[in-house]
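Look over this today:
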Amino acid sequence: MITAIVLIKADVSRIPEVAETIAGLEGVSEVYSVTGEFDLVALVRVRQYEQIADVIPGRLNKVDGVTHTETHIAFRTYSQHDLEAAFALGLPDAD
């Protein structure tokens, strides 16, 4: 599975509608409204790299109200369990 993280700037007056439209696109698994420079973050999950072109420039970028996108392709996914192990301090659990 290939995951792309898409940072989206949208027409501020249309953010909820833009988010709902993007969330309904095939290949988009989640859309978050966020603070900061971008208005929305979408997670795109596809089986082949070629499908990224169908989803992002082919459909997502064409959603009325999307003004700019920035796409990042994930190299590796770390589960919550892996992250907890990576950042553990080595202290025994306080039971």
User: Anything to note?
Assistant: The beta strands are 2-10, 28-33, 40-46, 66-73. The helical segments are 15-23, 49-55, 80-86. Residues 15-23 form the longest helix (9 residues). The chain has three helices and four strands.
